[in-house]
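pinging the channel bc i need a second pair of eyes. not urgent but kinda urgent?? the chain im working w is below, pasted from the shared doc
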Amino acid sequence: MSSSYTMDDFFVLHRDLLREGPGSAQDVAWATSLLDLPARAQISDVACGAGADIAALLDAVPEARITALDKVPHFVQAVRNDWAEDDRVTALKADMKVVANQYDLIWCAGAVYFMGVEAALKAWRKALLPNGAIAFSEACWFTDCPSPRAQSHWAQSYPDMTDEAGVSAQIKAAGYKIIGQRRLDDAAWEAYFTPLDARIAMLRSGASEGVAAVLDEAAQEAACWRAHKAEYGYLLNVVVPA
């Protein structure tokens, strides 16, 4: 997060957004289709944000029990509000670095970079039930020669970002094998950016200095991807202990 704004400023933009990053129900369906999950699977949605993937996880495994974890109280409360009448879903305030209990599937959309792929997979191994799996999306380069604009953007937000081969190497170094990998498509990105665009436009008039900085940063992120989406994106990985 930029030092030019506060978390309160950040949530002026983000509090009404379902997605906090690229993704789609099709991603969840694809990842779960690769696994033989039990009918009443225990699933943890780690760094769940506002819970954008919970419905898709339950569509894939209707009798599953979902434990949604996030360290941001605002997101935890949003999930509790949305799923208050569904006893299949529990939302807890928890740091992704310490995933308690054990699960058939750990799902993590776009947040592994906070820990690093290798560190996250090693830390979560003890939270997997026998035959358990982890599915996560990770930002990575799709080219060896990214444009200066794309390089500048990611140098600020994720300086350690690698390419697809680098992600695979980190998975193997953590002691896992890859069941499947695929890039998130444009629709997954627009599922995040299109609502974001609309909310930015709505908030522009009368925005405080801090909120304006949040809006500018988000608009630049969207514009950079749209101009350079062939150069980078998210890789969805489904992995199991080797």
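so The domain at 7-241 is CATH 3.40.50.150 (Rossmann fold). and The beta strands are 42-46, 65-70, 89-93, 103-109, 128-141, 176-183, 232-241. — does that match what u expected or am i reading it wrong
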